[in-house]
Fold each of these.
Amino acid sequence: MPLRFGIAPIQTSAQRLAGHIEAAFGAREPIDILGFSMGGVIARTWIQQMGGHARTRRFLSLGSPQQGTLTAQPWPRWPLAGIADLKLGSALLRQLNADLSPLRDIDCCSYGTACDLMVLPGWHGVLPIGPRRMLPVWSHQQLLRHPAALDPLVEDLLRP
């Protein structure tokens, strides 16, 4: 899903995600969803605020600033609303963290790396619910490329 440099607010991107999911899987098909980086917060917003919890079986968050990131702090809301939504203590993240009940019946798992310079500090890249696993890679990009990150992720994706 194109994010256009974080210009669109996360909630707008979550609405687009809803449309993509419905077009690909219909309105009711249960799904597993993996969100990487900003995509993990977009997926979480769809799950928690747009009814996605009703059809989500499993949610894997990979290197996503679920608790905010220092790297978003200097960016203004205009023209980078999506990035601004990732600031520590943003209104969106406060809303998501205020009511975790939509996540309770979903198999949620978070993956991150302590060395992540996009999600800073690295331990902010985890959901406030479910198991968390810090992967032994050195960068945000390696979360999608290095076998030390991909092997455990694929293992979780393939489990029934």
Amino acid sequence: MTSPLLRPALCVLDTQVLLDWALFDDPRVRPWAEAIQRGRVRWIYCAAMQVEALRVVHYPALARRFEPQASTLKLTDCFARWGQCCATPPTQHCLVCADPDDQMFLDLALAQHAANLLSRDRAVLQLARRARPLGLHIGPPESASAPG
């Protein structure tokens, strides 16, 4: 059995950061993508996060730029190859997001003791200071170095 000290740190990616990685190939996300792909970080998600990401690729603004079917295949592959699906966590009451749609990211990160929640969402970022004492770093990908 692997020692907890040797296990890769867990991270949660919000939908925008995932799209930045999988569709936009945003250079600000590349260090994290490489860390996930090399096994230095474990990206975790729950089924609701996957459903949301696959729904978002059909939004008109994205559908004009990326063909939705190709985007769906690309995201599905990303989830299957690089992510680890976790059970939907119970709602955490220590950090409550102003945007109920973003609560799932916080809940999963806290329930699974993730080290990082990578987000660009203002409502999520506003909780960064309160998350620190709980052992969770919340910020955009460029705000923390990817392990490794």
Amino acid sequence: MNDLAPPPTAADLRRAEVIACAAQLLVEGGLGEITFRNLARRMNCSTTVISHHFRNKDEVVLETYRHVNARAAAMRDAALSDRAHGAVRAIEELLPISPAQRENWAAWLHFWSAALHDPVLAAEHAVGLYQTVERVAAYLRSTGMEDDAAQGAAQAISNALYGIAIQALFDREHWDEARLRQEFRRTTAYALGPDMAARQV
């Protein structure tokens, strides 16, 4: 039995191109920039090309949000695959340190406010947050931590990650890489207790 996924079609590739373009427009100017006209202008095509692949702007926005979340999940899973360090050290690599990480955080944050008023986006948002906590908890359990402790520690690590990343995005002048790492470790040490935090660095 062949479990390989079929190769993407031309339509799949075109949809992916539109979504990548929408994600870039989002980072540059916010959700208001995602329009068929702006996408067509950026991609040097007609709006008909965009409407051929997407029914409306809402569909583009939702798919862009899923794209941003998938990109963040891939970064998270790659960080947690590095067993040379503990969970705190692995997750701290997801802070908005590199340009790619800052871009993804900025895109995600644009969606955050929209999710407050859109049940579909809110559901996507909740799933992403839940998956991050569960992925970190699974990592901690794999190191021998008990289930309850792993779940609590994962929630604390996730809370620290999101809180510090958001502060850094709004105040980049005062949040360089060294401070991001220092505050993340300090906050997780406070939340987890210094002994547990030390084991996860």
